[in-house]
Amino acid sequence: MIELRNVVKKYGNNTVLKKINMKVHDGEVDVIIGPSGSGKSTLLRQMNLLEQPTSGEVLVDGDVVSGKVKSEVTRKTHEKIGMVFQKFNLFPHYTVLENIIHAPQVVRHESKAQATEEALSLLSQIGLTEKKDSYPASLSGGQQQRIAIIRSLAMHPNVLLFDEPTSALDPEMVEEVLKVMKNLAKSGMTMVVVTHEMGFAKQVGDRVLFVDDGQILEEDTPEKIFEHAQHERTRDFISKILYT
Amino acid sequence: MFQSYSFVGKYWDLFLKGMGITIELAVISIVLGLILGIILSLMKRSKIKVISLIAKMYIGFIRDTPLLVQIYIVYIGLPMVLGIDVPDFVTGVVALTLYSAAYIAEIIRSGIDSLPMGQSEAAISLGMSKRRVMTDIILPQAFKNILPALGNQFIGNVKDSSLVSVLGISDLMFSAQTVRGSTALGLQPMLVASLLYLVMTWLLNSVLAYIERRMKASDRVA
Ligand SMILES: Nc1ncnc2c1ncn2[C@@H]1O[C@H](COP(=O)(O)OP(=O)(O)OP(=O)(O)O)[C@@H](O)[C@H]1O
Ligand SMILES: [Mg+2]
Which Pfam families does the entry link to (chain A) (predicted)? Predict the structure, then answer.
């Protein structure tokens, strides 16, 4: 569904991604791990075209969507690929309900009633119906992140990208967010998740990709990566996240 | 001592009329300046280099030259460009608008820049068009953040409008000059004028503080 071909990303002289080749398959959950600064976020941001690769190309459903394409192609790609951020990024001037229904209304041209009905059903699935008229600032981090997830879902994306969705949360709120993500994975959603939550990777991950210094050093099933990684670098890194 | 202020009673009307004109100048120029300021700040962000360069040069020119010079440029230049006589009041409004728009554009830019990148990234990731991201997500938040600075600009316009009295517009400053002329008093009419300017800025400050408090409150309430 998403394919990266020889994707290189440079910031000035700093080459952050070095010829990445990767495919995200429908219905699959890919977990990306790797040291800080290795290029994990940059990798995700190429996939949904928040940034354009310096060279190489991004394909979605077989079509090239990166580089010199019409701005409507870029926008459509954004619509198909949802993204959940470390810092939630709910819109503070909108209520919870408005946060969820705004894009379905203005982008998908759903009626307010239709968008609201779906938003309420999503809210009830995560148990936050009574927060629909609250503003984000009055909610906990865990609540905000769960709402950010269903805000993306309300756009019916084909893929959801997550960039360290639990690392800005207090420890006691991590589980409630992971639970929503696990349910989503089980429902068949295609997901690419940057996270160091081993439990999540083991339970629902199909593949784990270890990114090191701008390259995908190794990729395999969670069991293989966590217990029998090929590379020393990978084993080092995994022992660090397991014992810190 | 206080006897020298007896002129106030006689010229009270003139002072009040002057105040009225000052308020008109400030209100009209802040509203028009806001519209032009938004346009300038969007021009400055434009991907088209020429457009952003024009905005940058304009803002630079206004900020780096004295208002009094700008007033004369408008006074002499506007009738030439339009080919018609321009009423002095219109000249004053145009000069103040052109002047405050440059500052407002910079205020808006700082308001937009102060928003976390994540706001526009989240909106873009939902598939919203660039224009939508700007009108629905960025500008409303930026506007809220810059309200205090815009208020200060408004107060600035009230004070700066005194300079257009050189054109013979009968604003508060002009009234004070007129009273000086007719009473042969030196300082007192100016002191009365400054007191009236103070009253206006104080009132504006109070209104602004009230609005800010209201907006803060509405952030919290569910
Ligand atoms: N917009 C940018 N401009 C310049 N350099 C950047 C930019 N974004 C990222 N970088 C650099 O690219 C490198 C990779 O950053 P990236 O955020 O992708 O790493 P990461 O693996 O997500 O790290 P972390 O675990 O800390 O989130 C870093 O050295 C970073 O400084
Ligand atoms: Mg990162």
Answer: ABC_tran
Taking the C-alpha atoms of residue A139 and residue A118, their distance in angstroms, rounded to an integer, is 21
Residue A125 lies in a domain: no
CATH 1.10.3720.10, applies to B2-221: yes
- Is B37:B189 a contact under the CB 8 Å cutoff? no
| pLDDT on residue A210 | 96
Low-confidence ranges of chain A (pLDDT < 50): none
Instruction: Say if residue B171's pLDDT is above 90.
Output: no
Q: How does DSSP assign B35-55, residue by residue?
A: HHHHHHHHHHH-SSHHHHHHH
Q: What is the reported pTM?
A: 0.84
CA distances from B165 to B16, B30, B194 (A): 15, 18, 15
Report if residue A34 sits inside a domain: yes
Atom of ligand 1 minimally distant from the CA of A214 = 14
**How far is Cα B54 from Cα B45, in angstroms, rounded to an integer?**
11
* Cβ contact A186:A151 at 8 Å: no
User: Ligand 1: distance of its center to the CA of A39 in Å?
Assistant: 6
Query: What ipTM, to 2 d.p.?
Result: 0.93
Every domain of chain B and the residues it spans: 2-221
Tell if the CB–CB gap between A79 and B118 is shorter than 8 Å: no
User: Given pLDDT bands bounded at 50, 70 and 90, which one contains residue B220?
Assistant: low
pLDDT computed for residue A216 by the predictor: 96
**Helix, strand or coil for residue A217?**
strand
Task: Give a yes or no: residue A100 inside a domain.
Answer: no
State the total domains in chain A: 1
CA A20 to ligand 1 centroid distance, Å: 16
